[in-house]
Amino acid sequence: MPLYQMILHAKSYSTPQTLASLVRNCASEIIGSGGVVRCVENVGVRKLPHRFKAKFEDKRGIRYHEEARLLSFRFDASPTVLTSLERLIRFETDILRCNTVRPVEITKKANITKLKNNPFHVSNRNP
């Protein structure tokens, strides 16, 4: 199973209870399909590079957001689980955006067979 990293941009004022229930639902979806959750991180509230538009106006009348709370998941799962996770997150009103990537593992870089291309080999290090 490949390693994935999912970054969620939530509204900055969303309650900890709703975010905790979302994390539990995502983790149970991953574990239920035979995957492994490696790490869940609350990165905190950060300024966004540009305004994000929410699906609907909330109770406060806010539709555009300049700050968001970032949550990061690292998990091993089959590719079919991603569609069910994205469906689960799509219906959550507190999530502004979701990005899923496959990070490059450091073991793949270290297993380069040509020594001159291997940045981790002793002969290729700068003194």
Structure description:
The protein is of the alpha+beta class. Helix content is 27%, strand content 37%. It has 3 helices and 4 strands; from the N terminus they run βαββαβα.
Secondary structure topology:
Layout: E1 3-11, H1 16-32, E2 36-53, E3 64-76, H2 79-90, E4 95-101, H3 106-110
Antiparallel strand pairs: 1-3, 1-4, 2-3
Question: Quick gist of this model?
Answer:
The protein is α+β, with helices and mostly antiparallel strands. It contains 3 helices and 4 strands. The mean pLDDT is 84.
Gap between N and C termini, in Å? 38 Å
**Poorly predicted spans:** none
What is the percentage of strand-forming residues?
Answer: 35-45%
Assembly form of the protein: single chain
Strand order of the largest sheet: 2-3-1-4
Structural class designation:
alpha+beta
Helices and strands, in order, run as: EHEEHEH
Number of helices: 3
Largest sheet: 4 strands, antiparallel
- The percent range for helix content is 25-40%
How many whole angstroms does the radius of gyration measure? 19 Å
Question: Count of DSSP E strands?
Answer: 4
Shape: globular
Average predicted confidence as pLDDT: 84
Throw out a few tags for this protein.
alpha+beta, 4-stranded antiparallel sheet, 127 residues, globular, 27% helix, single chain
